[in-house]
Amino acid sequence: MREKKIYILFTDTSSWLTKLIKLYTKKPFNHVSLSFDQQLKETYSFGRKRSSNPFIGGFVREEVAEGLLKKASCEVYSYTILESDYKQMQMKVRQFETEKDLYKYNFLGLFAIIINYDLRRKNAFFCSEFVATILKEKNGVLDKSPNFCTPQDLMDVEHLQLVYQGLLNSYPYQTDEVTMQKDTENNPWKTKLRYSPDFT
Question: Given pLDDT bands bounded at 50, 70 and 90, which one contains residue 27?
């Protein structure tokens, strides 16, 4: 059967909430997102709906060129799965997206992990709980419940392949759309693929 890749993005935004979480985890990356393309154009997670307010959160389609992510450090991994699993994961995310107003960020779930309490809340997720829920569409990926999964648990998933490590605004696979640019020295209407390492 055909195979496809999904991409798991781990980031450190250096926000005060991230620093608070890091005091407990002692890990460099405490936010995780899922993307269906190497360019990270389709990237999803649970996080802030407004970059200025950490307390208003829920399901988000993240723009890696904006907000806190723009200056984040990161690691990007690829994960090869069957095309059927890929489509199933996409369908699951589409369900979240269609009903996004029903979901909220699971702040209580973060504290439940700390005290090892099995808290399962309807329509509430934190970032790694969401990504783990989507990965569970493929059998055998995780050996624990999503509500107990941390970003580090996801980083420890077998067969992840490191794609990039560094500042997100220098991610080499992010490109602008092909644009027509006038080249007065050579071809006056030469098509160029314009790379935009700073996302602007």
Answer: confident
